[in-house]
Amino acid sequence: MTKTTKPITDAVATSINEIQILITYLSFFNRNRYKGSLRLQCTLVLLLFSMFIFSSCEKDTDHSPNYMEKIFVENPERIIKVNIIYVEAEESSNRSSYSLDEKEYLDYLNGYYFHRMGIGLELDNSKTLVNEELYDLRDNVGSEPSTFFMQSQESFDKDRLNIYIIKRSNIRAIAGMGRNQRVLLTDEHLYTSTSPHEIGHALGLFHTHESGNIMSTTERDLRQSFNKEQEEKIKKRIDQINLTNTTTRLAGY
Ligand SMILES: [Zn+2]
């Protein structure tokens, strides 16, 4: 696969697009509360605050939930298809620089976090994206999210959960909210509660201060479950994604 380098105009367009998605989300909360310029100001403040959270919410350490029990169900009510995208620095690498056991990783996610809600993450495709800039994000301090969204623009599927795995970054993870289910994780943090946390963002969830909640930004060691409201929201989002999938497939006939 060729390296993805976007021209600057595309980069700006991508950023504007991402900001519009965020504004759409944030405007929802402001609806009926503020009017005119006050509403706009509040939206912008929330936007900036939200961007800050996204760039910095995952700096501390956390651990696998070794005190939790894995729960598997036979046929989960809902399935979301997953793409795993390994970001490599060079085209030539015959051998992947990652040694992920994909089945084991999905079992980790399903067993600890998703099957208990009747949701199954199912691997659809695993592929490689050669992109030196994304592979090592350490030089992109402060612009990691925009770099990620820009550089992954042509390699994700709208009807999948797209998990990008990279080697190095100053922040441990990034997730896209809105219409694109794009998650970026550094490989050293795959087996931590950061994974379901970012997947939660990608499926439309905001942060919460609820102790023990996956979307909490504090007491990372204690994060273990989504609440009922979040569960409903995720399910609704998965249904929408799968509907897109069906529509696309039908359109193909
Ligand atoms: Zn977060």
Describe the overall structure:
This protein has helices at about 10-30, 35-55, 100-115, 130-135, 145-150, 195-200, 230-250, and strands at about 80-90, 120-130, 160-165, 175, 180-185. With about 250 residues, it is of the alpha/beta class. It has one domain: Collagenase (Catalytic Domain), CATH 3.40.390. A five-stranded mixed β-sheet has the order 2-1-3-5-4, sandwiched between helices. The longest helix has 25 residues, at about 230-250. The radius of gyration is 18 Å and the shape is globular. The model is unreliable at about 1-35 and about 50-55 (pLDDT under 50). Bound molecules: zinc ion (ZN). Zinc ion (ZN) binds near residues 57, 197, 201 and 207.
Features:
single chain; binds zinc ion; disordered N terminus; 5-stranded mixed β-sheet; 253 residues; 7 helices
